[in-house]
Amino acid sequence: MKHLAIFLLGLAALAGCSAASNGGDQLASSAAEDATSIGEPLLANCSTGRLSDAFKSHTCDHYTFGPYQTRTATTTAPFPWFGAQSPLASPSNNGRTHIYYTVNLTGGGPFTGTAKIKPETSGDYALFYSSALSSFTVKEVGGGFISSDATLSPNPGTMSCSGFSGYRVFNLSSAKSYEIAMTGSASTVNVLFELVADANARWYKDADGDTWGDPSQSLLTACAPPAAYPASRGSDCNESNASINPTAVETCGDSIDSNCNGDDCT
To answer: With 0-12 CB in 10 A as exposed, 13-18 as middle and 19+ as buried, what is 46?
Structure first.
């Protein structure tokens, strides 16, 4: 099932793909990008510099389970659109998240082609790609080249599941259309776009190490949480005692609300 989810518009996932050392950092940049690059700020709340394992796993599942579409990129305009044909409900120029694309390139090595995409929502998009995609550029239609996030991509923007070997993160506008020019070592490459905000999860500080976090100290992010926020669930009512948390056994009459439900005996 091939699903280049939002190629240049977004890449993103759940847990199941381990980081690899090759991928995004091997992708070449366009010389024109240096002259007309449009800067992009670091993703909010992403101090670790990498997308979460859950986000990556979600992306890997698209390769296995779909939905997927096939596109044939061209070297001459008009370029085809991602997201313009079945199984989408109606024709549209909009690129859709959660669609894994198999892209056919032309030529005899290197293989090349360009396709267009228009985000449905403005924001940061992760573009996941297979190892056969040796380089690509993102360019506004009628404008300049778009730079990927310097911290999140290309290093450590890597993956090791079948179908995808790396990712880059781009900030895209729903008011604009973009051209994705691709060069591949094979005639077929995999691409997937994911809106990063769709993968946001809340993480909590956990001072007592009982895996239940402090509900008043949390961080919402699609990236791997920093070490200070290890808990994926909050609701701990006592962060100084690991034996007190929502799953603890209650002892009636000891004047301690062990399971944080507001009652000493239930």
So the answer is: buried
- Number of domains comprising the chain: 2
Q: Is residue 1 part of a domain?
A: no
Read off the tokens for 160: 């090791």
Last residue of a domain, one of 199, 221, 250: 199
Handedness of CA 262, 206, 151, 125 (dihedral sign): negative
| CB within 8 Å of 229: residues ≥ 6 apart | 203, 204, 205, 213, 217, 218, 219
* Beta partners for residue 193, in sequence order: 127
Q: Is the pTM of this model over 0.85?
A: no
**Looking at the DSSP assignment, which residues form a beta bridge with residue 184?**
111, 133
Domain housing 49? 7-199
* Residue where a domain terminates, one of 167, 199, 231: 199
Whether 2 shows a pLDDT value over 50: the answer reads no
- Radius of gyration of the CA atoms of the chain, in A: 22
Confidence at 11, pLDDT banded by 50, 70, 90: very low
Burial 60-98 (b: 16+ CB within 10 A, else e): bbbbeeeebbebebbeeeebebbbbeeeeeeeeebbbbb
Residue 2 within a domain: no
pLDDT at 16: 33
Q: Are 43 and 222 in contact (CB under 8 A)?
A: yes
Question: Residue 133's closest CA among 89, 156, 101?
Answer: 101
